[in-house]
Amino acid sequence: MSVTDSPSARPAHNWRPDHFLDHYEILTLPLGPDPDGEDPISATLIRRPGSRPAPNGAVLYVHGFTDYFFQEELDRFFADRGYAFYALDLRKCGRSLTAHHTPHYVSDLALYDEELNAALDILTEELAEAGSAERVVVVGHSTGGLVTPLWLDRLRRTDPKRHRHVRGLLLNSPWLDLQGEAALRTRAAARILSTVGALRGKTPVPRELSAAYGESLHESVHGEWSYDLERKPLGGFGPRFGWLSAVRQAQLKVHGGIDVGVPVLSLRSDKSRFRSTYDVAVDTADCVLDVNHIARWSPFLGRRVLSVAVDDARHDVFLSQEGPRERAYAAVGDWLSAEIDVRTDEKAGR
Length: 350
What we know:
single chain; alpha/beta; Rossmann fold; 9-stranded mixed β-sheet; MAG_DAG_Lipase; hydrolase activity; AB_hydrolase_fold; Alpha/beta hydrolase
């Protein structure tokens, strides 16, 4: 090992207090030049400070579109299971969004590999320094549930040394297909979208967005959750053609079959109910994605995929009402015990 590779030679990470969540801290991850022309860009890693036992390793949580990390209960669940919890706000999202950025815009979802690789390296480094197992469970929600499987598939094929640190993938309502009319999901439609995306990438997609989901969540309207409405507006950020094309190309790769190389748990609601305005029906259903699509395409993610429908869950199953939320956590706990948690023989080094 060279001098520059030794732990003592590594630059200290500049963690600082988070302005969005009390008792959390953030680390800015500077990124290279933005291919989409909105430099400077960075990503943000979030954690609770202080040493906690993490015999099972760590969790890396990746949010969805019009989203960022605020789900403290999810952190507590994994901490109680023996995991150090980290969340990543991707470029131009949440804490990483600045005034000169088009919110959540990328022209290729593979661009996120830069911050995902950097975050994974920091997690494994900090686990090693703490004497914990260098094992990471990746958690992806919605668009994050599309980004993360494709990242792991690429990592398995091109960077097995990094990939070996990842032991499982938990997906929370992954966005694996376009909702709406079947004509929108043809390959011909994808080619048209790709052409428009290449020519008018940042042009808004002319569609009316419903605020029903946001209103079902936020405590200022009908929900129980508190979060920043500038970073996660009730009606969402409007999608752009280039971003939507990137999403569609990524979905088609999943449809061709990929292999994330680790056990997968894919959670979804048991039903979808789409509404243009809020009503109580959206409190017990996915009003963002078609759950039938999630069920159909989840098996295409790898060789060991467990797909579970959670009765009466919302789009973010961990932001559901208390009953379905408890059922979702129970399903995760069972999966972790069966597939992921460190076994006694591993702890003993056998």
